[in-house]
Structures are given as C-alpha cells and as structure tokens.
C-alpha cells in the first residue's frame, strides 16, 4: 500500500461521500488559524500550530475531527449533541449527511490555538 504524502491526495482517495466534509473542514482550519503546518501524520491529515493541533480522518459513515481534550465547554458539548453530533473526549464525529458545524469548529480551533500557545510559552519560560 502506497503511503499518502499530502492532504489533497488523502481527500481524493476517500469515499466520495466523505470528500465534501473533509474539504470544508480543511478550509475552516486553514482560514481560521493562519500560519499552521498541514501534513500527513499517523496516516491522516494533521495540523501543527505550536505543537500538535488538530486533524481529521475518514471512516465508513462519518468524519472524525480530532482536537484533543480541554477545549470544548460543557455548554458547547450539549449544543452539539442536541444537534445530533457525537463527541468523544477530544473528537467530533460528523456524519456525511450532516452539515459541518462551522461556528463551533472555529470556536474549537481558536480555543486550541490559545491553549497550544500558552503551553509553548510556559515551556519556553522554564
């Protein structure tokens, strides 16, 4: 099996149903946080911003958007779940037939950027 080298190829090789969701996620990530690094890590699209940032992966019936713990408030979790999204500790599942929750993802990205910046600043001050 050939290793995928870039995000565009990953998206194009995914199921047709998954591609639009991944394209929207990619666009939101790139537009919301300028200066991040896009690459393939762990065989999936992954982004770095002051360390590991976010990523996404295609599954049989959904896209998993991973952002790590400690960035989703209880209120946002409840709102997303009320809209039919499934959340893990640091992931959001978006089914192919669901709209991408753009505003919520932008909020997650901005919170994660602040968190990563604070972690890096703390490490540099030691």
From the N-terminal CA to the C-terminal CA, the straight-line distance is 44 Å
Biggest sheet record: 6 strands, antiparallel
Tally of strands: 6
Q: Could you spell the SSE succession in H and E letters?
A: HHEEEEHEEH
Annotation keywords:
126 residues; alpha+beta; 4 helices; 6 strands; 23% strand
List the helices and strands and how they pair.
Layout: H1 7-13, H2 19-32, E1 37-41, E2 44-48, E3 52-58, E4 62-66, H3 74-82, E5 86-87, E6 91-95, H4 102-124
Antiparallel strand pairs: 1-2, 2-3, 3-4, 4-6, 5-6
Helix pairs in contact: 2-4
How does this structure look, described?
- 42% of the residues lie in helices and 23% in strands.
- The chain is of the alpha+beta class and 126 residues long.
- The protein has helices at 7-13, 19-32, 74-82, 102-124; strands spanning 37-41, 44-48, 52-58, 62-66, 86-87, 91-95.
- The chain has a six-stranded antiparallel β-sheet.
Outline of the structure:
The protein has four helices and six strands; from the N terminus they run ααββββαββα.
């Amino acid at each position: 099996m050939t290793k995928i080298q870039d995000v565009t190829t990953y998206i194009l090789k995914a199921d047709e149903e998954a591609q639009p969701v991944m394209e929207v996620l990619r666009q939101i990530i790139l537009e919301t946080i300028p200066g991040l690094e896009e690459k393939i890590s762990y065989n999936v699209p992954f982004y770095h911003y002051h360390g590991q940032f976010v990523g996404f992966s295609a599954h049989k019936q959904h896209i998993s958007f991973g952002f790590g713990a400690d960035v989703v408030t209880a209120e946002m979790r409840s709102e997303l779940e009320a809209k039919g999204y499934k959340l893990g500790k640091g992931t959001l599942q978006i089914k192919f037939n669901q709209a991408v929750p753009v505003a919520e993802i932008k909020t997650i990205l901005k919170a994660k950027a602040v968190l990563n910046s604070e972690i890096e600043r703390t490490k540099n001050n030691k």
